[in-house]
Amino acid sequence: MDQKKPSSSVPSGIAALAPQFPEMKFSIPASVVSAGFSYAIFGKTAAKGDKWFYWDAQTGAYADFGASSTGKNVVCLNTPVLSTGHNVVSVSLPTDQNIISGIVVMFIGPSSGVAVTNGKPAVPTPATNPSDVYGIFELSYNTATETESATLDVDISNIDQVSFTFTVTSSPSAPYPLGKVGSPISTSELMGRFKAQFPEHSAFSDCLGSASGPLTAPQDILKAVSPPVPPSYLAPTGVPVADNPFTAHSYFYAVSETSPSGETAVSPAVFGGFLLGKTGAAQAKGINIGWQIEGTPSKYIPVNKNATGINLYRASVAPVSAGGTIPVSPSLQNFGLVTSMSIDEWNAQPGFCFFDDSVSITKSAPVTSSYGFNALSTWFDAPLQQFFDHYQSSVFSFHQYAQEVGSHGTLWMGKVVTVTPKQGAQIPNLSFIDETGATKTIDFAWQWGDGTQTYLALQLVGNAYDVNDLSQTSLTTKQTLQAGEYQGAVVHIYFPYFVENTDLTQLTLPVSGSVYAVPYVPSWLTNSSWTPSAMVFGCTGVFSSLTDADAIAQNADFPGLSSIALPALENVVVSAFNRGMATGYGFALGALQYISFYQFKAAASIVQNDPDNKLLPAGTYSYFLSGVLQNSAETALSWSQSITLDTAANVTLTWSPQSPALYKAANIYRQATDGECILIGSVDNNAAAPAVTFTDKNSKVAQPTTGAPFAFYPGWIEDNSVKSNFYSAFLHQNWSHNLATGISLNGLVYGYPFDDQGNFSTNINYGTALPKTITIDIMPLS
Q1: pLDDT of the residue at 10
Q2: Segment 395-401 mean pLDDT
Q3: Mean of the per-residue pLDDT values for the chain?
Q4: Residue 357 · residue 246 · CB < 8 Å
Q5: What angle do CA 32, 35, 39 make, to 5 degrees?
Q6: Cβ–Cβ contacts within 10 Å for residue 701, how many?
Q7: I want to staple 589 with a disulfide (CB 3.0 to 4.6 A). Which of 14, 65, 488, 593 is the partner?
Q8: pLDDT (tens digit, 9 = 90+) per residue, 591-628?
Q9: How far is the C-alpha of 143 from the C-alpha of 99, rounded, in Å?
Q10: How wide is the angle at C-alpha 734 spanned by C-alphas 731 and 740, nearest 5°?
Q11: pLDDT in tens, 171-211
């Protein structure tokens, strides 16, 4: 939904007048000094280049990683010499070299380094640096040219994890309200508040590694779930028994770990050993099965954090005598459950082994996904199924601003439909409305599929739009219509349930009650093994389908469709799930209501000594904006602006204007520190007098009867009735509003990958107005 940022043209010769790259300062408290501090800064010179470099503080210059470099790189780490107590470390990067996809990584304590593959460094994640304590600060810098000023864009990233807290201050300024961003509380306070909010055994409690951290994002928790290590101790043993049916076969074994909510994908299968001697006679009664250390059976140590039990599976094959060729393992559907027990029960067995000598098994086959093992893996099941079922009978519509070509947007409309892709076959029943109001047929064929799999998908078609009412979906010749950027294009957002990521064969949809036969994953989909909820948390899979073959095939006619427009639409939808907007208010919100484009543009100002106004009592107040669409529907609330009044006064607010074609009014809400969020006024928005300011005179107005205000993460702190991303909700608690419960300044943080939707992240785009200094203040550890 973000419009593209214009470049700034400047007079010839601007390179000679280019501002210096801002001085970066690390402000390091005594507790961090004691633990040890190091940092790495790396990036590349061009967006499409593959030459990566890092900053070498000793030489005061950049150095190349080297195209053949692979492994953990510690040479790129800078370890400043620090004195006892508080320290400030300054870094002055060159002004004359681009830093594209730049990363500043701060490490506290020992560091394993930066993972590098063929000269390309990886941004640390819980998977690459599981034992490191680190924080990430992103930056992209373009040097000045003869026609363009230097530009800078920076951000704090909490998308994957939070090991420690810090703030970033730009001096002398940054675009409002980003002069100072981050979390100003200590690391121990952050972790303590999270633990209190999510006690042990609650779904999000897994996000806290230990009492001291780190916090790990839900998608990274789910990504880390893995099949267990297969049994490594398999020993045929026991005195043979005549006519023993067990020795009439040889066996393969596999295991999964279980939790109170489900089980993991099964381990690789392993051969159970030879029950028959070289002559073909039985040489053992059964098989001891377990795990070993240097040949000695040992206790089972779970691979996954919340594993509580073990499922042991077995498949039989024709008997093989000792010395014979070990056969190929049977397919998983031929395995059955031998036993299921807790890890404590397993480790209480004699010799830490299970003795298998029974031909009896159940028909319960192992699973190939870990869907259900962690409560987070099914967290979004209800809203996902409700959303895709609801829009089978309701129209989904969204006006998308210009993405790639020109200045005109697109009205996307459609429903969830069942589709059976077959390469070369026409996609049926496709039409769009053009700028004359005429309905035109779309002639487009599937680019993939063999016609055997049927999917649910939100099918959206691009249309012209009413220039006077961007929420209008009933387009006629009587309106002033504009050709849409992508009118005539068709895209699909798929229901994220597949055999491979759920092991389901069917599910019953909650609104219609219809039974959905779960298909196999589309051949082009990336991250297809992620569970449906993991795709929401991580904004990936069906919600980031850059490889959609049908969208790619339309790029020639619709530039940027697959790489820009479709991902932006998926951004809108997946953000609505993360924030609880998609279904949290009983479908009261359409897609244009998911965020407010109204944004405060300056700090609130205090107005005193106005005898005509009723003053606000002293206290701290937060203000929010929402937009009222031309169809009278109201958007969700904007990010908030907080102000503290030492004495009674009035408050004047200002915000950036928005098109009257989008909003006919701006609504203003106020919340005291411990009070409800209430409507305090509305300002009409029209071309002659755009809504841009309001003075809070402490007047009472009628409150909405529509369910507004619509706040993100509805009810998350009270109950679990609305499923949203509680990890993100926790981090978004506004410290500027309430010091006792707040986490982030102004409630801004990157709580999930697409959190810049509606400007709720800490992304700072300075444009050409570069600051002189950027100070990273690391908060005390305790």
Answers
A1: 35
A2: 97
A3: 94
A4: yes
A5: 70
A6: 12
A7: 593
A8: 999 999 999 999 999 998 777 778 999 999 999 999 99
A9: 9
A10: 95
A11: 998 999 999 999 999 999 999 999 999 998 899 999 998 88
**pLDDT of amino acid 19:** 63
Whole-angstrom Cα Rg for the chain: 30
Q: CA dist 458 to 493, 542, 569, 693, 765, Å?
A: 5, 11, 11, 39, 33
Residues constituting the chain: 782
Say which residues have a Cβ less than 8 Å from residue 347's Cβ, sequence separation at least 6: 299, 300
- Counting DSSP H helices and E strands in the chain, the numbers are 10, 43
Which structure tokens are listed for 657?
């204007």
Terminal CA-to-CA distance of the chain, rounded, Å? 40
Secondary structure of the chain: what % helix, strand, coil (to 5)? Answer: 15, 30, 55
Q: Contact at 8 Å (CB) between 666 and 654?
A: no
Burial per residue of 404-429, b for 16 or more beta-carbon CB atoms within 10 angstroms, e otherwise: eeeebbbbbbbebbebebbeeeebee
Q: Tell me if 73 sits within 8 A of 65, measured CB to CB.
A: yes
Q: What is the pLDDT of residue 27?
A: 98
Per-residue burial over 14-27, b = 16 or more CB atoms within 10 Å of its CB, e = otherwise? bbeebeebbebbbb
The percent of residues in the chain predicted with pLDDT above 70, rounded, is 98
Please give the pLDDT value at position 4. Answer: 38
**Cα–Cα distance for residue pair 314/615, rounded to 1 Å:** 76
Average of per-residue pLDDT across 445-471: 97
Whether pLDDT at 67 is above 90: no
Q: Could you give the C-alpha distances from 285 to 244, 251, 288, 319, in angstroms and in order?
A: 8, 13, 10, 14
Pairing of strands 250-259, 270-271: antiparallel
Helix (H, G, I), strand (E, B) or coil at 541: helix
pLDDT digits (tens, 9 = 90+) for 556-575: 999 999 999 999 999 999 99
**H or E segment and range at residue 578:** helix 566-578
Q: How far apart are CA 576 and CA 758, in angstroms?
A: 11
Residues paired with 350 in a beta bridge: none
Q: Which of 272, 299, 300 is nearest to 286 (CA)?
A: 272
Q: Are 338 and 365 in contact (CB under 8 A)?
A: no
Is residue 14 predicted with pLDDT exceeding 70?
A: no
Exposed e or buried b for every residue in 333-345, given b needs 16+ CB within 10 A? eebbbbbbbebee
CA distance 492 to 419: 10
Query: Considering only CA atoms, which of 346, 306, 313, 347 is closest in space to residue 330?
Result: 313
